[in-house]
Amino acid sequence: MAMTLTNDARVIAPEVTLTTLSEDVSSRVLMKRAPLWWWCGFGISLALLMVLIIQMAVLFIVGIGVWGVEIPVAWGFAIAEYVWWIALASGGTIVSALFFLTRSPWRSATNRIAESMLLSAAPCAGLMPIMHLGRPGFFYWLFPYSSVMGVWPQMRSPLLWDFVCLLCYILMSIMYYYAGILPDLATVRDLATTRSKKIFYGILALGWRGSVAEWRNQRIVYAIMSAIMAPMVVSVHSVVGLDYAGGLTPGWHDTQFPPYFFFGAIVSGTAVIIMLTILVRWGYSLQNVLTEYHFNAMAKVMLVGSLMLAYAYVWEAFGPLYGSDVAARTEFFHRAFGFTAPVFWSEKILTVVVPQLLWLPAVRRNQLLLVLISAGVVVGMWQERFVFTTSSLEHNYIPSYWGHFFPTLWDWAALAGTIGLFLTMFFLFLRFAPIISLAEVREVIEERRAG
Amino acid sequence: MTQSARTYWRTLEELAETPEFVAAVERQAPRFRDIVHAFDRRRFLQLMAASVALGGLSGCGPEADQRQLLPYVEQPENIVPGRNRYYAGATLQDGYATGVLVAHQMARPIKVEGNPDHPASLGAASATMQASILELYDPRRAQTLFGDGRIATWQGFVGVLHGRRERLMASNGEGLRILTGAVTSPSLAAQLAKLQQQFPGMRWHQWEPLHRDNEAASALRSFGQSADRIFDLSKADRIFAIESDLISATPGWLAYAQQFAAARRPAETGGTMSRVYAIESTPTLMGAKADHRLAMRPDEIISALRHLAGLLGAGPQQWAQEETAQAAWLKAAADDLAAHKGRALLHAGRAQPVEAHLLTDAINIALGAVGQTVKLIAPVEAMSGSKLRSISELAEDMAAGKVDTLLILGTNPVYSAPVDLDFVERLRLVPFSACLALYEDETSAACKWRIPATHDYEAWSDARAFDGTITIQQPQARPLYGGHAAQEILSVLLGDPTPDPYTLLRNFWQEYAPQEKREDFEDFWHKALQVGIVADSASDIVQVQSRPDAIAELPSGAAPSNGTLQALFRPDDGNWDGRYAHNPWLLEMPRPFTRLTWDNAALIAPNTAERLGLKTEDVVEITVEKTKLKAPIFLLPGQAPDCITLPTGWGRSGGGLGTGSGFNAYAARNSGSPWIAQIAAIRKTGETYRLATTQGQDRVLGRDLIREGDLDQFNSHPDKPLTQKKADSLYEPFQYPGRAWAMQIDLNSCIGCQACTIACQAENNVPIVGKDQVLAGRVMHWLRVDRYYSGPADEPDIAFEPMPCMHCEQAPCEVVCPVHATVHDHEGLNLMVYNRCVGTRFCSNNCPYKVRRFNFYAFAAQNERRPESWNPEVTVRGRGVMEKCTYCIQRIRTTQIDAAKEDRDIFDGEVMTACQQSCPTQAIIFGDRNNRDSAVAKRKAWPIDYDLLDDLNTKPRTTYSALVRNPNPAITTNTRPGNKASNHGDDTDE
After folding, report:
1. Complex ipTM more than 0.95, yes or no
2. What is the per-residue DSSP string for B404-464?
């Protein structure tokens, strides 16, 4: 496949060759004993995962009442975090699929990290709405299966579209990941020294032998899937936005939600990828594969995302202020200047103001600053999701039924727990699958040599 | 429920006499055959429980356990599963009866409705009446008889009492005291009279903490004789209310409220309506409905009344010259009243001092109201006299050691008696004390003997209504917890060691029934039981000699309070005097103004609170005379300045659910100042206490929720309504060719009494959630009554707005449910399919009216309720599902089935929702909108009918008619600022 990669030497350090790359990356997977930092990180992740399991046990045994949700604020942390997680996942797809289509050279080394992140975040997103149900055991009633009662899901509900989209998205993401990693699994299999690892990766590699026909098919499938995934992630996140836009609630009933959510996904997804890339680079000493070039490029993406988000924020204010709906205007005033004002304004600062530092090239190359800015963006995005989910419900049409949402310990446990699930999964990806796409980086090296 | 479907039994034996029944008993329970034939009432009741009443009731009594229970082999006639049978009865408050019909399903009482034939109900049922069914079943009721701290038996008690009787006989009854609440029961009164004969030294005392002593005392002085006032609001074109409880608590208030509302529906009365002035220190329902309302301190009320008396010629001319607040306002009101002589009415509430009542009487006399809007009847109570004096004398005698045997029957003086009487300490000095109480309460804990009492629905008794009408109460169930009635205890004292309440009552009535009825006594007895009233037993109007000079002796006007704080002891709207403090529904019932649940609070005007540096939930220590009281503060708009209202009836102890809720206002109430007391000091403790209100914001914040206008506007522009409708949809609307169920709520009629909320809770198995969950925003009431203020916080306009489900034709909840759990039916009902609900709660988010409720926990399962007390016609919802108002679909379906069986249409009014049925003012009307002659269609044709939030185009089936006030054009001062059409619309948030 004709890749028009740039010859920019900064994409990859000159000392990296095909052999060193394969051995470097594969050895991380095949090493007998994981490094200490991995165990520490994995241990913390598992501890947080335990929090999730305990939280779920309490939630399912005692009832949804252990959370702070109430009437009027019937949606709380779970839905806000669902949107937050799905935005992070979507960010992974954007980096991986969209920039594949644009042939961006920096994408080759980071796409596996992005996809691993996406696969780790998607279950967290999927778990949230199920935990949030009053009767979680019946979540499958949203699935259009042919039951003897002849009752189908209600097709007009955005929740149903949401359910279908999320399901398709997760399935597609798994296949996309697998299609991409297949040749790398074969490499690991070939380099494996123990029998058990040979069998394990042998099965996963599905008998890949590296023939031209195989490569050709793999490249075609991968390109087609990228072409599907890129628009799909836009639609998935837009449909999540329709959960709100379709709601008859002041502050939600707004057509800007689908793009607004997508902008948020670009910013927060990139932010997480930046943080994870730095972790991988540092942990696996892959400084020569993951170079400043990558950080520079991703920081630019984040900066563009935050500018788009700023545009959405202008509309967030303009809509209710320009419109004639008293309820929507009141709701916006309360959102911006009421009880939630500190959360509202710190969210704007973290997601839009602080990322403007990325205009400075020095900042884009400073990994410490990048981590701080990215962490701020991720926290800010969480705040944003939280504020517009609850504030709108708190300030509904009937003032007598205004209320406030106060999260409980179990709400926080659900947040901490899903972070645990995310990290656990990501650490497993780190340990058991090549975290750099060997096939694609090889192409970069080949391009460089050819160039 | 239909009129025709009601089957009353008159007596138990009528039921028992049917041959099928006797045969069935013989077959199924041969050992009881003889008992049935013997017609022994008491045995029959037991039999009924064991053999007829199915599992529920029969599991309750101790005897039942030892017997064999047999199921039906053949179904007895007239007990049809799923069908309600109604039995007449009465609930009592302060001794006064209100008639009820108790619905039974399979012989279990499940729901209380008002008795349309009873003058105090006219079909309506208040919140407390509705809640009485839960009290009947309350597993926390007293169940064990204690003597000297040990578990004892009834026989043991009878033996001891009988022994005392012998000694008392010897001493002529010296030292025997009986303390009751207010007594209207002719049979109980006759027993007491007989006791007095047998024991000349005995004394009968009475105590009601929320007594009406001042009303009684002023009647005696104004009319020269003891008399009760009854009112005719249908004739009252002008009402002047002085902190009036006329439509909230006075005996007969349900009937008064109906008359009151009927005169205030201009669309029905041809453009006329009454005009109400109210002056009050703390908001009342009457004040909320008033066209002109002023918040006044108690001293200002007296001077205002003197001023009014001077202006209307009821008092000395110079009174009209005295300095008073709001003189212009009073002048305008006086002119208006004077122009309606004979059709005006003044009413003062029970908490007003005797001067206020005397002035009220004098003005009523001057306005020619007596005989027109106010009528006098002989006192309904058997012993009318001052309750306060009565209990004070008892306390003095106890202290002096003059009391040797004290029977306390159905009143709770240790809790509620004036604190300076030191009742509990003095009670300990009494050698023999016995307390008959429904719950283990403060008094029973201090008595030597405590006897569980029967509930109103378990006893054979009788009682009179506000107008004297007598109801003979038949038991709705046999005593669930082995209770006994006051009549039984008095019978023992009279020498009958094995009293049988039924025989006692029947024998009494054979004597007491009117002469002409005695010949056919059976017929009289059956009719009285069946209908729920003794025909023609209302008291006659007495002609009185009005004494307008009664006020001549009044001291000159009350001294102004000069900014000193006063404590006002006022009845709580749910707990009343404390008797309902353990009732879960009433504990969780939002109070009309504060919307508080599970607690009372010291109510204070916002301005006064600001002056004192207090805010809601601050805990203060209030010193009244020698007692200190800790109470949380609650800011109440419309409260008079410098007055702190302390609602009574809270801070109970004992075994009931209300134990520990709220503070006990009686702890600061002295016999010298039962209603108004000077506050010596108020101190902020620095603590805070969380109060659970159910209302988020007090104002409409610019939304078009309460539409309001005045009568002139209504009359001058009948074609240009106070309201306007928005454009329709672009799409072809769904057609409802058959029936279209719909509801109409008249905001002008709604007085905010909360009866509908509790009626709905009772009918639809709505669980309570507890204070923590109310605080967490999870209260479950399907129907709430929103209360909105407009105008300044110290003189607000107050509006009530009942909020059931709107059953929108374009329901926003339905489109967002992913699983079809909420759907529409062909008659326009917005249905909730509990079994299908997975609990996404999107429907609640999307409901603009916020009428959906979610089971965050398994609330119903957690409720401490006997299983048989739930309504079997309505699903009890489990954890994790949404629920909401169904327009009482079970009632609709029952009626539809009836109509289908009889091959006829449903009559208008045949289906009544529970809220509609209980509403005393007919504010809620339900029916088929497609039937042009239906009441609901007629109301929806009113020009002032409007949709709530109509710009959302949800097309609600529940619509509202605008609030119409009838202001006096002569009153233009700023006392009621902005009294214009869009009062509520003017309030914006920012």
Report:
1. no
2. SEEEEES--HHHHS-GGG-HHHHHTT-SEEEEEESS--HHHHHSSEEEEBPPTTTS-EEEE
